[in-house]
Amino acid sequence: MLHIVACIKQVPDTKIIKMNPKTNTMDRASAPAILNPYDAHAVEEAVRLKQRYGGVVSVVTMGPPPAVKAIRKCIEIGADAGYLVTDRAFAGADTLATSYAITKAIEKIAEEHPVDLVICGKMTIDGDTGQVGPGVARRLDIPPLTNVKKVVEVNKEQGYAIVHRKLEDGHEVVQSTLPCLFSVEKEINEVPYSPLPNMLRAARYNPVVWSVNDLGDIDRTLLGLKGSPTIVAKVWPPEKPKGGEMLEGTATEQVERLMDILREKQGLFRVKEGQS
Amino acid sequence: MAEKFDVIVVGAGPAGTACAYTLAKAGVSVLLMERGEYPGSKNVMGGVLYRKTMEDIIPGFYKEAPVERPIVEQRFMMLDKESALNFSYKGMEWAQEPYNNFTVLRAKFDQWFADKAVQEGALLLNETVALSCIVEDGKVVGIKTDRPDGDVYADVVVLADGVNSLLAKSLGFHKEFRPDEVALAVMEVLKLDRKIIEDRFNLEGDHGCTIEIFGDSTKGILGTAWLYTNKDSLNIGVGTMLSGLIKHKLKPYELLDYVKNHPMIRPYIQGCEQQEYLAHLIPEGGYRSMPKVVGNGVIVVGDAAQLVNAIHREGSNMAMASGVMAAETIMQAREANDFSEKMLMPYRDSLLNSFVGQDLKKYKDATHHFEKFPQYFEQYIPLMNKAASQMFTVDGSSKWNKQKKIWSDLGSAKDKWKMARDLMNAWRVMK
Amino acid sequence: MNLEEYRGIWVYLEARDGQIAPVSLELLGAGRQMADKRGVPLAGLLIGDGVEELAQTAFPYGADQVYVYDQRIFADYRTESYMRAVIECVEKHKPEIILYGATTTGKDLASAVATDLQTGLTADTTMLDVNAETGLLEASRPAFGGNIMATILCKKHRPQMATVRPKVMKALEADQTRTGEVIKESIKLAEEDIRTKVLKIVRETREKVRLDEADVIVAGGKGLGSKEGFQLIHRFAESIGATVGASRDAVEAGWVDHAHQVGQTGVTVTPKIYFAIGISGAIQHLVGMRNSGLIIAINKDPNALIFQACHYGIVGDAFEIVPLLMKAFQKEPDREVTYG
Ligand SMILES: Cc1cc2nc3c(=O)[nH]c(=O)nc-3n(C[C@H](O)[C@H](O)[C@H](O)COP(=O)(O)OP(=O)(O)OC[C@H]3O[C@@H](n4cnc5c(N)ncnc54)[C@H](O)[C@@H]3O)c2cc1C
Ligand SMILES: Cc1cc2nc3c(=O)[nH]c(=O)nc-3n(C[C@H](O)[C@H](O)[C@H](O)COP(=O)(O)OP(=O)(O)OC[C@H]3O[C@@H](n4cnc5c(N)ncnc54)[C@H](O)[C@@H]3O)c2cc1C
Ligand SMILES: Nc1ncnc2c1ncn2[C@@H]1O[C@H](COP(=O)(O)O)[C@@H](O)[C@H]1O
């Protein structure tokens, strides 16, 4: 029986956030919150491993109370249990402080049921760093395996896992002891359309909710803004490029003008006589 | 093993949610099924929510619901090509509790309302499409969804799936709409700074106003355009009978572009940024188009039952009222543990006896009348504009002369008779 | 923590296939500027098996020193072993800043090191600067998923760390007369201490998309409307011998493989000519292509941001303009297009 914990996060759907080009502000309010797409793959992979080897999938998230919705989404995918750690004290956490809070939660989950494997998404679409996964692994003192695109084997009896890690020009096959942490690429699986019974279970599901006090022995100076070595010093609109020359005229005229320009830019581009 | 609920409600719009809320509150196990990502995600409405019906369901709802602005002024605009005749009512009694109406954005409001139903114990299922009713022995016993292992059962199924209800159609309750039974509406949500909105529309603080626009806004096709104020956005839209669009070979968004660029409207929306573009059908067949609304184990509510008052652009309130009436009927049927068509029929009776049925009857000929006689929109509004222009232009000619001129502009004696007759007819269908 | 004790700027030199990864040389360029501003040395940190020779490549690109861990145990990259070396070296020599390429390895290593050192790490930085007096690293990156840049500081912890994507910074012109000091380090580390093993490395033979090396890129976005529509990009690219690029939205729509994605979460490219067709010009896309030699944008919307980032813009429908362009290119059939 494997016990797999997937780390998930609720994020604003950045594809829907629209920027106001004049003021350069974001309209965040209008963006619905969704389960971080990479994390859906993490949960799906956990569920597949559960189906393959038998076991239990728990999901954990640190976030505000509405993150319950993201947990329900994971139940739809097939997770068995969800844990929400939520507290004012976590606010303003950077990746280091985030990994601390998540680690504390996983340790608490493990008290009841030892954890064999932790799975994270490759990155979040809002934080967009990919640093939390390896951070959690380091804090739990288990090997981090990032960029996992295929799980070959998880062998609890003999205490190892074998995965493919994606590299720039291929992949490597890596073996690690268990427990360990994977952060997974999107290509690792496809998240199927959830069956109705899962949907009904998810709609009814209420996760375990923990605050800082529930996490027991915790160093508060390592949490939230206080525990974050990095700060966002300023936010500014990117330098507006000056803009190029707009080609005028009909479509044909524009294209002709462009061809002239391309020919002029001798250094860049040439049309040379062919052989024949 | 497929699950069974007491009631399945298909569609988490105002009708379905009102029904689910009422049932759940009474302790009935109810599954509220919605195909959108969340309730309201795809729902469209010009944006006026009538307080009364909603308040019957959740007293004092406006204190916590995401309403945009209480409406303190209703303006009407009779539009010609380059002019408009306006009148309005503004009343401060509408600016305080219990208010009259509110503007709302459905994406927010529906979600809130559905959450309320969930708090009462309804089970909300998003992103799930009801494909068909499961019928056994001539009785609807459940819903087949698009999900794997997707069947789910109930004593009663409530179809609140909106205009063009595929489920009611598949049960043979109604046929495909005729183009003269539905209006096609397109609208945009335009973002605008709230301070600018308040200045531009002469509003104090949170107050809101609605502008209904007739005449040139639809290029003479039967329909209306509207411009409503939200907190920090405007709703602008135009709705016309499908048949009119077809006849005039117009695309709805062309019409909306025309409205947005109209010199009488342009200034209101200057500097706005388009946030959303939406299109939707409105069932405007009225009383005569009302389908069968009750069957064995099934009830149809809201737009799915064609419950819209096109003349007063009421729909959501009728939808909610019908949802509540359906819930009440179902609760009675539960006492007898009999969900046959006969046991559910009281729903239809209460519907017809309520303001919903009464209003639908009152205006049963209106849409068809205006559709049949385009002169109301094509001729009379321009005439009114011209008259006003002549009357108010100070050019040295006496008011007597002006009146004479206006009178003669109305055409020959025959034309005048015709106009008088038209006005009488209009009065008759509307009274 | 006494911040004063930390001095010097480091670049993690990623050794790959017997070479220093280009991104590491680019970072030496950025590091050199900051080191000069601060008046501190610029060092490389090189870890591997049989890599000592490579240290020499770093000097022409700006390094003053290179710390080298050349040990058998470092034959394969493994987070646990490499991390130990970095941490030991940091504890010994106390640099104020460490830069890593935002490659698979660089990101993995930096994340682990930052956690153990309990310091700040800024991911996928696109701009770097340092305060000459305080030594505070100003690492900027697009943030919050929107068109906004954020400058991130790490005030009270050292070393300050950042990862930077390939091709974002510019390597210095190699100065072969420059030399530097190789400082040999070693760490006591037994194979049993390491919990992972690389069993096999598989180079994918499947045709690689070498966007970062392309001279001409024809990139398409969501404006192509569909997978079929995107074929226009393939046809145009093929007809002029260009490589196909894409915006993330086109990739996510499934019209084209992720390997073609240009931008913050794709590849950073610097071709001589970049055609952006039906691409709106979101900052995450722009950061990936704005250093191209000549940017030509084709978009229906005259207000599209891409027109502010291009050299020449055509307002028009891709399905009208591109076929005309293809025709223009083909006009003289026995001529051949070359770039360079
Ligand atoms: C442009 C426009 C302006 C309007 N302006 C006003 C106004 O100002 N004031 C007013 O009171 N009324 C207005 N109306 C009318 C009002 O919007 C409708 O009458 C009201 O929304 C009807 O509610 P309903 O619950 O019956 O249907 P809907 O609100 O349409 O809800 C139906 C729900 O069912 C879901 N659904 C549909 N099929 C399925 C399926 N197969 N499976 C699962 N879920 C399904 C839909 O996603 C939707 O959430 C307007 C309508 C339009 C189009
Ligand atoms: C964390 C994060 C990382 C990201 N990383 C990347 C990244 O690496 N790369 C990337 O590209 N994006 C990235 N994005 C996404 C980015 O913000 C934009 O959403 C994306 O670049 C938009 O793609 P697009 O321009 O193809 O689509 P759109 O923004 O939808 O633009 C389509 C354009 O096509 C035009 N058009 C439509 N029809 C036609 C026609 N027939 N002819 C000509 N023009 C037409 C339209 O006017 C429009 O300007 C990232 C976002 C986030 C939040
Ligand atoms: N607040 C959080 N709660 C739980 N898991 C998280 C949280 N933030 C990040 N993660 C996990 O860490 C991965 C990388 O996130 P990031 O470093 O933010 O890109 C995500 O895909 C999640 O699996």
What does the model show?
Chain B: Its cofactor is FAD. Chain B: Keywords: FAD, Flavoprotein, Oxidoreductase. Chain B: Residues 367-431 form the FixC-like C-terminal domain. Chain B: This is Protein FixC. The complex is a heterotrimer of chains A (276), B (431) and C (340). Chain A is of the alpha/beta class and 276 residues long. Chain A has a single domain (2-222), classed as HUPs (Rossmann fold, 3-Layer(aba) Sandwich). Chain A has six helices and 16 strands. By secondary structure, chain B is of the alpha/beta class. Chain B has three domains: 4-66 and 105-176 and 289-353, 3-Layer(bba) Sandwich (FAD/NAD(P)-binding domain); 182-283, D-Amino Acid Oxidase, Chain A, domain 2 (2-Layer Sandwich), CATH 3.30.9.10; 367-430. Chain B has 16 helices and 17 strands. In chain B, a hairpin with a 2-residue loop joins strand 8 (130-136) and strand 9 (139-145). The mean pLDDT of chain B is 89. Chain C has two domains: 3-193, Rossmann fold; 211-331, 3-Layer(aba) Sandwich (Rossmann fold), CATH 3.40.50.1220. Helix content of chain C is 26%, strand content 29%. In chain C, the strands form four sheets. In chain C, strands 7-11-6-1-4-5-12 form a seven-stranded parallel beta sheet, sandwiched between helices. A five-stranded parallel beta sheet of chain C has the order 15-14-16-17-18.
Order of helices and strands of chain A: EEEEEHEHEHEHEEEEHEEEHE
- CA radius of gyration of chain A: 24 Å
CATH architecture of the largest domain in chain B: 3-Layer(bba) Sandwich
Shape of chain A: globular
**What is the count of helical runs of chain A?**
6
Strand order of the largest sheet of chain A: 11-10-9-12-8-1-6-7-13
Task: Please tally the β strands of chain B and state the result.
Answer: 17
Helicity range of the residues of chain A?
A: 25-40%
Number of domains of chain B: 3
What is the helix fraction of residues of chain B, given as a range? 25-40%
Beta-strand share of residues of chain A: 25-35%
Cα distance spanning the termini of chain A:
71 Å
Query: What is the C-level CATH assignment of chain A?
Result: Alpha Beta
Mean pLDDT of chain A: 89
Q: What's the CATH H-level superfamily name of chain A?
A: HUPs
Q: What is Rg of chain B? A: 23 Å
The CATH level-2 architecture of chain A is identified as: 3-Layer(aba) Sandwich
CATH fold-level name of the largest domain in chain B: FAD/NAD(P)-binding domain
